[in-house]
Amino acid sequence: MLRVEVSRRLGEFSIEASFASEGRVTGLFGASGAGKTSLINIIAGLLRPDRGIIAIDGDVLDDTAAGLHIPPHRRRIGYVFQDARLFPHLDIRQNLDYGRRMNRLAVDPALWARVTDLLDIGSLLDRRPGKLSGGERQRVALGRALLAQPRLLLLDEPMGSLDEERKVEILPYLVRLRDEANVPMVYVSHDAGEMRQLATQVVMLRRGRVVAFGGPEVLPSAAANPAG
Amino acid sequence: MFEISPEEWTAILLSLRVAAVATLVATPLGIALAWLLARRDFWGKSVVDALVHLPLVLPPVVTGYLLLLTFGRRGLVGGWLADNFGIVFAFRWTGAALACGIMAFPLLVRPIRLSIEAVDRRLEQAAGTLGAPPWRVFLTITLPLALPGVLAGMVLGFAKAIGEFGATITFVSNIPGETQTISSAIYSLIQTPDGDRAALRLVVVSIVIALAALVGSEWFARRAGKRLHGN
Fold it and tell me: What's the confidence (pLDDT) of residue B231?
């Protein structure tokens, strides 16, 4: 279970969000500027809350009252950024293996095979990030995060920088990830359609506040505009 | 005309040794300082920045004299080092390396700092979320991506160290075989009645060394650039 109870000022804007989600995929839904990215940066430990608590399955990662802040590299939370952020000086194999090396995990050929098959990236291993398409890059970023064996995976609009055609290419992988990877995810998007296909629970954000929480039925109907 | 005498060889090899040692010792320090200046905010940062650049703007003879006062046998640090560790800089080739290292330091630090500043911090963040503690982020992401700048800094520093004259001659004098580098040898030769030809030979040698360093660094930078841009 992911428990979030935080507040954080960011200039004129502020985030005050509380929710506790059991879902396999918790969707953070809202228009751009609703505070979605700031909120998952807080969960990842990249941004410190002014006040509040972040906990996963009872393991406390932030507790401002107790002065506790676990740095990102010790949280075991994977993060797939909108812009993939593959390391340009490493080939795809080295990118994928990076998290395992940094966490000093044993080589796990079965996991490697499962993840590279799931994401269809086995043929890219010897290439450089600069030679990949946007969709391929995003799939490698997913694989890289998974192979670090995180206990939670954060996805910040992983299809946000892709055109429609590429989105259609990526979406099935995300669905497979949800159904087969066995890692709880927090999925950020402003696209209700995407959310409906992926999220098992939805946190709706508006101007830094949680305005609705529940199953996918809290999402606006297909015709309506996303929450603003 | 192009018969290099043993004395000239001695000066050439000494120059190469002094510049190489100065560059190799200064590089890790320069990388650490460049990282601090590029990535950390701390009290007194502008003072540190100014101190690093000081040898660039001070008259070299002033830097040399300050080194003599500090690292000379009766200097504060020099006396202590000599008494406790038997390390002596004054009038030794090691002193020449120290003077060259200090004079080269600002030129070495600057490109490294710029290239570290140019490394995308979002990549460092990504490395953190993959479990890399800050020092491993530095070694596996920041430093490799800043490598062209590190090489550029090393070449600039080496070139400066090879050519250094004022601070070196002030601090360690001009002793053939111990502290007489190419520059101070040329200086001595010019003052000798029939030293023109020998001086000219050393001038040619220093031009060759400088060009070789530039071409070499260009080649390295191109290779590193290719590696970094994913091709």
Answer: 46
